């Protein structure tokens, strides 16, 4: 490495060479975050014990519904639950006993092994926005998403240094039939990126397609023995599990693929307005869902999820970046750690319609909350707009840039010899400056986090360049990233097999848009 640097200096030198190095195409991906800072714990031991006791009471006395799923009912009966039609009441302690087989952490493999991620323990993996039917950018405004939009987001995710994961439904491509779009989305993740990705959950057969396509990409034996997908299984809060999501989870669990079992809660609408009440319901729901996951296959990788926001009591609209959501996210992190489970929550949440000041405030609150609450898998970490209805190209770039701050915060404070900087203090002494000292020269490239989007130029330069605001800068960065995109290498035979699978599957059924 030092030899290569010397050659670069010898050939070029000066500002032109440095500018060329800065503007060169780069598809570097930072390693997933490993925290060297403590988690923030908001609940004391008494509060945690009360919530845990109440959650067990909910499961035992009130129960949860497993709808239209006779196989689930039979599994619960065999496990010792009290079943009355579709209502399942779980004896105190049974769910906790069942989830003991779930791993504390696991590796999700990418087709490029350098992009593998570890989920659990002190790690945090960042994945992009998931699910919006609309997209927005400065060129086309707000519109229904297309497959072309989806592919652009996958390319941006691949090119984003601080984003570890390609995600899943980064937007919902409405120009492709509902029963076929999962095939095109999976193909995009597999071919246009070499980062880890998520599978389809909109119908059990689509989950099986995801497993089968991964068999083509990784090899069937590898998929059988390793986790190559992490997929989102939402609970219909309050306390209802539907056959579609549970059916998809059954497929993934039985194939040793990871599931995020996650309540979808808007406080005041799908859960109580109080923090403790919501945490009680969250814990009851994830205990039931993860226990069922382990009934399907003991030892299958699973993540405790929590998607929680509050509601505006005047309009009924969801709100984001609020202190109540932070309280719940911090508390749920403590509950997840006590269960010994990886934790999913937080993201680039905002209710704003544009990537404006409201979006920045709410997103910053939500991202920092995710880091400090001990989140291991942060879905929606970039691109979220308008309460999750919109995937924004500009905000995707802005948020992905800000994820670099989380990486640097997570490193904590070094107090080794270099971190103490006593040599610099001695060299400079009273009345001097540190710009030219040896310590600064040795550390200036890595000492401070540097944005790839925000503007730090003097006023005169900023004015000469058109007085561009942050959204305009992000739009230009997005265009640059897409222009510089280079498809990662993939064995042509594998790509042909994936294409053939998708084409054959799509040809085997008529289009359905419902």
Could you give the topology of this structure?
Elements: H1 2-11, H2 14-23, E1 33-34, H3 45-62, E2 64-66, H4 70-79, E3 82-84, E4 87-89, H5 94-98, E5 105-108, E6 117-120, E7 123-126, E8 134-137, E9 141-144, H6 147-159, H7 181-192, H8 204-218, H9 220-225, E10 230-235, E11 240-241, H10 243-254, E12 258-267, H11 275-296, E13 302-305, E14 307-311, E15 318-319, H12 323-339, E16 343-344, H13 357-372, E17 377-378, E18 384-385, E19 390-392, H14 393-410, H15 417-420, H16 422-428, H17 438-443, H18 459-464, H19 470-484, H20 492-507
Parallel strand pairs: 2-11, 7-17, 8-19, 10-12, 12-13, 12-14, 13-16
Antiparallel strand pairs: 1-7, 2-4, 3-4, 5-6, 8-9, 14-15, 18-19
Helix pairs in contact: 3-11, 6-7, 7-8, 7-20, 8-10, 11-12, 13-14, 14-19
What keywords describe this structure?
19 strands; 514 residues; TIM Barrel; four-stranded mixed beta sheet; 46% helix; six-stranded mixed beta sheet; alpha/beta; 2 domains; single chain; globular
Q: What would your notes on this structure say?
A:
The chain has helices spanning 2-11, 14-23, 45-62, 70-79, 94-98, 147-159, 181-192, 204-218, 220-225, 243-254, 275-296, 323-339, 357-372, 393-410, 417-420, 422-428, 438-443, 459-464, 470-484, 492-507, and strands at residues 33-34, 64-66, 82-84, 87-89, 105-108, 117-120, 123-126, 134-137, 141-144, 230-235, 240-241, 258-267, 302-305, 307-311, 318-319, 343-344, 377-378, 384-385, 390-392. Strands 10, 12, 13, 14, 15 and 16 form a 6-stranded mixed beta sheet that branches. The protein has a 4-stranded mixed beta sheet with strand order 3-4-2-11. It has a 4-stranded mixed beta sheet with strand order 9-8-19-18. By secondary structure, it is α/β, with parallel strands linked by helices. The protein has 2 domains: 2-36 and 100-410, TIM Barrel, CATH 3.20.20; 417-447, no CATH class. The model is unreliable at 1-13 and 19-26 (pLDDT under 50). Helix 11 links the parallel strand 12 (258-267) and strand 13. 46% of the residues lie in helices and 13% in strands. Helix 6 (147-159) runs parallel beside helix 7 and helix 11 packs parallel to helix 12. GO terms for molecular function: methyltransferase activity.
